[in-house]
Design a protein that fits this description.
The chain has about 160 residues and is of the alpha+beta class. About 30% of the residues lie in helices and about 30% in strands.
């Protein structure tokens, strides 16, 4: 897998409208669990304030995004391996529908894992909607293990985990 990070940058306030448009473009897509209320402006605020939102830009246009998540409820799930702490979480992986299938999801996800490692995390866990076939296929190449299942935020998730 080619790792091309030159187009991955930390998002800024100036990127907000494009990020919102990206999120909006995915809502209602098959297997996408996002709603009219999530992700929201408040979600973007949360990510920007923590320097936790990254985007892929090509020709000045945002094509993909990813966030380093902080969610105590997810962190408290009993399925996570204590030996991998501290663990980080990645969330809101988004690729414009017109750009899907080009490998951008894998590039930005690899960048996110590398960023977690740079920030001192030992492991990573993610929740994946158990019906999101595209996401499951994308994450399969990274060697995650399914360590449990949960029902949160009115959805059924697979709990994925791996060492960084």
């Amino acid at each position: 897998m080619q790792q091309n990070y030159e187009t991955v940058v930390m998002a800024t306030e100036a990127d907000r409208s494009e990020i919102k448009a990206l999120y909006q473009a995915l809502k209602g897509q098959e297997y996408c669990s996002w709603t009219e209320h999530y992700p929201s402006d408040e979600t973007i605020d949360f990510d920007l304030k923590r320097n936790a939102l990254f985007v892929i830009k090509e020709d000045g246009k945002i094509k993909a995004a990813i966030s380093i998540e902080e969610d105590e409820d997810v962190d408290k799930l009993s399925c996570w391996d204590e030996s991998l702490r501290p663990e980080g979480e990645l969330a809101r992986v988004a690729v414009l529908p017109s750009e899907q299938g080009r490998g951008l999801g894998r590039v930005i996800f690899q960048f996110g894992m590398d960023e977690l490692k740079r920030r001192g995390f030992k492991g990573i866990h993610i929740l994946v909607n158990k019906y999101n076939i595209k996401a499951i296929r994308c994450y399969a190449v990274f060697g995650f293990k399914v360590v449990g299942e949960c029902h949160m935020y009115e959805q059924d998730y697979l709990c994925y985990e791996r060492e960084l």
